[in-house]
Amino acid sequence: MTRRFLLITITLVTVMTANCVIGNQEVTSTGDLESGEFKNLFPDKTYSEEDFDHQTIKFNKEYDVSELPLAISATRIIFDKKYVEARLYKTADTANEEGKTYAKSVTGPDGVVSGDSVMWKEKERDRRKCVPKAGRSEAGCDQVARYGGFLISGNLVLLCEGLGMVDAHNLCRKLIEQLNE
Q1: pTM for this one?
Q2: Which of 20, 93, 124, 153 is the most exposed place for a label (fewest CB within 10 A)?
Q3: Three-class SS of residue 147?
């Protein structure tokens, strides 16, 4: 009986270890998503605010873009029960240059979401979330980027909520696919 228990335990530990290793390999194999480098998904597409008039998209807030260089509009929406910030630019080139620079600054684990270094101050609180400090039970939290990543499609820059870049990109891709139906 003890020998059987030991054999079952060893087998389970081996299977669990193999699953962890395989799972980690799948996450790191996303290459382009992990590095944040990607191409404009639909470079010839020109989006407008009307494209977001869809039953699965709920408008949450509009932002003043006077301090966001070359942006036409910026809106926070709720899609698939997550926040997405949609920024429209006049052209795809503008989205790829200015839009990418500003989106990159507030997304992912290195996103700057508070303090003097925030590039665009308009409603900066919306781009961060409070995460409890590790190992502490008392009050207090770390301010981290709400948006795990961003994608560009045509003249549109989407900042998408997610636990990591892969989750955020999956949400962005799902929204872009829906906008292009």
Answers
A1: 0.76
A2: 20
A3: strand
